[in-house]
Amino acid sequence: MEPTQAKPQTKFNTKSETKPKANLKTKKIIKQQTQTQTHAQLAEGFLSNQLKASWFNKSIWYQRDKRDVATKKLNEWETLRELASDIKAHTLSKLDEYLIEFEEKATANGINIHWASDDKEHNEIATNLLKKHNAKKVVKSKSMLSEECELNHHLENNGIEIIESDLGERILQFSGEKPSHIVMPAIHKTKEEIGELFEEKLNTKKSNDPVYLTQAARLHLREKFINADASMSGVNFAVAETGSFVLCTNEGNADLGLTANSKLHIASMGIEKIIPKQEHLGVFVRMLARNATGQPITTYTSHFTKPNKGSEIHIIIVDNNRTKLLAEEKFNSSLKCIRCAACMNTCPVFKNSGGHSYNFVIPGPIGAILAPAHDIKKYEDMPFASTLCGSCSNVCPVKINIHEQLYDWRQEITQRKSSFTIKSIMMKGGAFVLSHTWMYRLFGKIGGFFVHNFRKISTMATPWGKGRELPDVPKESFKDWWDNNAKK
Amino acid sequence: MKVGLFIPCFVDQYYPEVGKATYQLLTKLGCDVDYPTGQTCCGQPMANGGHAKDSVKLAYKFVDIFSEYDYVVGPSGSCVSHVRDHYDIIEQTDDVKHVRKDTWEISDFLVNVLKVDGGMLKASFPHKVGVHNSCHAHRHLGVGIQSELNIPNQESTIEKLLALVNGVEAVEMEHPDECCGFGGTFSVTEATVSVQMGKNRIKEHIKENVEFITGVDMSCLMHMEGILKREGHKVEVKHLVEILNSEL
Ligand code: SF4
């Protein structure tokens, strides 16, 4: 498919063209556009369309509300959370053993296991397998790991057509966007926008009727399934004792991929997807969809143990910074995540800034603690995109202390950074002033004086003044009152 | 019972009435209340901004000043939760342990330490009041009913105390424990999102026709008050202690 969004020009391209010298102003604009924007800047863009922002907020609340109803129907919900957390913590403590057990069992079942230390290796293994099977067209069901590895881009560069078979992902492939959510990747798109996109890409008639549009996508994808040379998927759970893997989908697209074309299937999984036993699925499968969308279980829960006759299944087990994270004592419990998305559905910052405001492949609270583990410099603002309200930790089915890790990452980021940002200097100044009582009083008074006299200017000029007034300044502080009236 | 009053910096500077109400209320309830004037900031703003290490001095100072009291009580859930949860950055001496354990958010202290009843309070506030459950008190200190959890019989100290006040009509919001967007440094580093979150909160209160928004964290109330004023709404904010301290 042709990408519809213009990609930013690479350095190479601009250099190879002889262009008239851009004036300073244009240069400045180009520079601004190519610099990665912070969460705060991207969020501001998101909120500039108030109508859409409020619609988005409501759509995400709808998910959170459904989740509340569904989880409250299970009296044992909190016990399940304990169990799930314990199982995952135990697994992480013996990850090497369980991964090897999985490899042995899966191999004995006739599945081929590959190990990839990073995204590049993952993409190369996948490309080589597809090339070996002469696969030109590949259908792929939703996989956040493949997004993390930017697999599609790599395959396209190698002349392999990749077709996303999850409806949301296919919509994004049409629009040239990245997922804004890990369970509902196209949740940021209205049905009107999807209608227009389908008119252009699938020749549908003008419509925003979800039934009509879904039917059109279904017909379009059926044809892709039938003509595909190979299929790909992620993995929700990999069971060490059986060597089988489980995929949870609502559209059955993973199964269709595997059965419509049974010659080659490649499943990609992060090393943290392992669970020790089959019986543990009983805990996770009950929680995943309930916590994500409020469904008791996903429409399809498919177990794959061995390839059909004449076909091959390959699993690529990927590290890509996960072992690095495993070594971080304060942060490694984030590897317990089962990607239910409940933390983003409940996050007030996510609801009011959208998934694309996070620069990392996984948005929301869990993204904000995983991102700095990948690249602390690149994602240094992510842990600050939170009020530390703690709702994320409360909904998490595996009890990751997300808000505490956000706080801890903030400390790591300022400690590990060599240069001071303006924010950090401000805060250091604050710490100094406030630890000296007299200075704090004095500055309080001077601050009060400024606020009194230059109220308007100071309110408008500071970020606080964005949509807020400062409190009225009282005649005397509490301390003054105490000294004059109550002091013993 | 010797109680050390912990009045956070911005309450001292901007909301002295809240400090006074806390003092008067605790005195009325029989506590021997003192306000150690050497107190500064607990260090939370720095720590939340990623500078916990630089706030170590503040933590030592806090403990130094407050360790002589049986209890430390403050009208701010977030500052109290900082002392309890984040003073693990300093050496855990007996004094530090004592201060961390015995520093209380005021509503929690009234309900769970003083075990106040209506007779003791004699408060009256004949108004329609919307409750704001601020995150640090609500979730970190666990004083409220946390909507995400499936734990039956959770209790709310704010609700319990308001039930003891004559004439007050307390209203619960559609999303009773959604964050207001203050978040300390977040309110300036992510000002646009912060204000938007605040707007969403006050919208629910306005829809319920409340006259006042109350809660136990003055910082959240300050943030919402700022938006209410900017947008020209008549709704006012009042810290819970001011309501509990109001008489006929
Ligand atoms: S961190 Fe927890 S709540 Fe968030 S996606 Fe992972 S499992 Fe779900």
What does this structure look like?
The complex is a heterodimer of chains A (488) and B (248). Chain A is built from 24 helices and 10 strands. Chain A is globular and about 90 Å long. Chain A has 488 residues and is of the alpha/beta class. Chain A folds into 3 domains: 14-36 and 74-320, 3-Layer(aba) Sandwich (Rossmann fold), CATH 3.40.50.10420; 340-416, no CATH class; 423-485, no CATH class. Chain A is 53% helix and 10% strand. Chain B has 248 residues and is an alpha/beta fold. Chain B folds into 2 domains: 2-112, no CATH class; 118-244, Rossmann fold (3-Layer(aba) Sandwich). The interface between A and B is large, with 74 and 76 residues.
Count of β-strands of chain A = 10
Name the assembly state: heterodimer
CATH topology of the largest domain in chain A: Rossmann fold
**DSSP helix fraction of chain A:** 40-55%
Give the biggest beta sheet of chain A.
6 strands, parallel
Kindly report how far apart the N and C termini of chain B lie.
28 Å
Supply the helix-strand structural class of chain B. alpha/beta
Per DSSP, what share of the residues of chain A sits in E-state strands of 2 or more residues? Answer: 5-15%
CA-based shape of chain A: globular
Shape summary of chain B: globular
Spell out which ligands are present. Answer: iron/sulfur cluster
Sheet having the most strands of chain B: 4 strands, parallel
Estimate percent helicity of chain B: 40-55%
Low-confidence parts of chain B, pLDDT < 50 over ≥5 residues? Answer: none
Quick check: average pLDDT of chain A?
A: 86
**So how many helices of chain A?**
24
Number of domains of chain A: 3
Q: Which characteristics define this entry?
A:
heterodimer, A: 488 residues, alpha/beta, Rossmann fold, 3 domains, six-stranded parallel beta sheet, four-stranded mixed beta sheet, 24 helices, 53% helix, B: 248 residues, 2 domains, four-stranded parallel beta sheet
